[in-house]
């Protein structure tokens, strides 16, 4: 009997790098691991090789920006994301990617990959942290958003898809292969947004395979 042929597209476990310089990276690693992904800390440029996606966690954007440069990660990471590596950015992660950062430090840099303007710590009259149920496009029940000194998205380009708002302000957006969330989905135990991200990662992988073989 002839040996069975291997399926043409091997379904493999996605490998996700979680930027682990500072902030809430452990909880992202746990969420992705629960969903069956291989989640690894990302701290150096050579760890970018072989990743199918990247998570930029919440924390303190000014510190992460400095560390990105100190660890020689800023430009290599930017190149990969520009080339289409899928990313999930939460809270400070959104600030790291925004084209325009308002109320940043004078020397604060961003990767300029999200065509939006964000203002840091801008939920002025709200307490520093609050929770709010968010109706998200494509989800059948609301997602509990945990906001911790979150940035406010003050402007989005037309190309940006808004997936959810709180008080008419975008809190979940998608631009190209970047999913941006101004809250902390990793702190709720609700893995639906990490699932959505892994679906994006899978789709990006399939598109890449088609390009390579087609
Ligand atoms: N306020 C933080 C900053 O400016 C972001 C807070 C967060 O990520 N939860 O970077």
Number of helices: 5
**Cα-to-Cα separation, first versus last residue:** 31 Å
CATH class: Alpha Beta
CATH architecture title: 3-Layer(aba) Sandwich
CATH superfamily: Class I glutamine amidotransferase (GATase) domain
Helix content: 25-40%
Unreliable stretches = none
Largest sheet: 7 strands, mixed
Overall number of strands: 12
Mean pLDDT: 94
Bound molecules: glutamine
Strand content: 25-35%
Q: Using only CA atoms, what is the Rg?
A: 17 Å
Task: Give an account of the 3D structure.
With 214 residues, the chain is of the alpha/beta class. The protein has a single domain, classed as 3-Layer(aba) Sandwich (Rossmann fold), CATH 3.40.50.880. It has five helices and twelve strands. The chain has helices at 25-34, 61-70, 74-82, 92-97, 192-213; strands at 15-19, 38-42, 53-56, 87-90, 98-102, 114-119, 129-134, 143-148, 152-156, 161-166, 169-175, 178-181. The protein has a seven-stranded mixed β-sheet. The longest helix is centred in the C-terminal third of the chain and has 22 residues, at 192-213. The model has no long low-confidence stretch (mean pLDDT 94). Bound molecules: glutamine. The site of glutamine (GLN) has 12 residues, from helix 4.
């Amino acid at each position: 009997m002839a040996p069975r042929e291997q399926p043409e597209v091997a379904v493999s476990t996605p490998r996700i790098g979680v930027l682990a310089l500072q902030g809430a990276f452990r909880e992202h690693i746990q969420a992705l691991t629960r969903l069956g992904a291989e989640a690894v800390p990302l701290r150096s440029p050579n760890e970018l090789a072989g990743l199918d996606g990247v998570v930029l966690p919440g924390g303190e954007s000014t510190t992460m920006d400095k560390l990105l440069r100190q660890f020689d990660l800023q430009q290599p990471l930017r190149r990969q994301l520009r080339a289409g590596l899928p990313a999930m950015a939460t809270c400070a992660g959104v600030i790291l990617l925004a084209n325009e950062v308002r109320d940043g430090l004078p020397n604060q840099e961003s990767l300029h990959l999200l065509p939006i303007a964000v203002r840091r710590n801008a939920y002025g009259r709200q307490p520093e942290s609050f929770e709010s149920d968010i109706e998200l496009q494509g989800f059948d029940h609301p997602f509990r958003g945990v906001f911790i000194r979150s940035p406010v998205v003050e402007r989005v380009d037309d190309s940006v898809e808004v997936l959810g708002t709180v008080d008419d302000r975008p809190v979940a957006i998608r631009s190209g292969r970047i999913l941006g969330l101004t809250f902390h989905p990793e702190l709720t135990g609700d893995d639906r947004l990490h699932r959505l991200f892994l679906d994006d990662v899978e789709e990006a992988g399939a598109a890449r395979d088609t390009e390579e073989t087609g």
